[in-house]
Amino acid sequence: MLEPQAIVNQRYQLERQLGQNAGRETWLAKDLQKENELVVVKLLAFGGNVQWEDLKLFEREATVLKALDHPCIPKYRDYFSIDDRALWFGLVQEYIQGDSLREYIAKGHKFTESQVKKIAIAILEILIYLHELSPQVLHRDIKPNNLILTGKEREDPNIYLVDFGAVQDKAAAEGKSFTVVGTYGYAPMEQ
Fold first, then answer.
1. Maximum Cα–Cα distance for the chain, whole Å?
2. How many C-beta neighbours within 10 Å does residue 104 have?
3. CA 72, CA 13: separation in Å to the nearest integer?
4. Is residue 163 among the annotated active site residues?
5. pLDDT in tens, 166-184
6. Catalytic member of 31, 54, 141, 163
7. Domain edges within the chain
8. Among residues 51, 65, 38, which one has the least CA distance to residue 133?
9. How far is it, in rounded angstroms, from Cα 160 to Cα 100?
10. Predicted TM-score (pTM) above 0.85
């Protein structure tokens, strides 16, 4: 377990933890080589509960993100490994400041019909972009937690799709078996 202010890969100073689950930690960090620009650092500790399949999914996420270029998907920045008593893998992305759709709903925020339409259209435009790529990219975990709303004017929010940890590129899936991933209730039934 890492602590705030720790510096990983001699470049990223961890600020605060954004999430954690078995063998994974997600941090808000400063990129010390880019004038303290805020980034998201996802870390995977190999071993223990983390197995080869987890590492393959993590590496696939990095590979897919590196190839994406859409204004509503956080930009890929870096991928690294650290062998310091434990083997850590890190994925760095652009930080999107905002709240998840889940947080809005939990706070009791009510969206107007017009806002719901705008949000739905924005999400569909991201999905069209992903599905028109060659090979297609399937996010496989579209849910309120993975949709970030931004902008000073929250009445007309921009929306970003985050967390490509369950991503599948269609080329990898064709003719091969694949791992079912995602969140129950949100993952597509065709998996």
1. 53
2. 18
3. 25
4. no
5. 877 655 545 544 454 555 5
6. 141
7. 7-94, 99-173
8. 65
9. 9
10. no
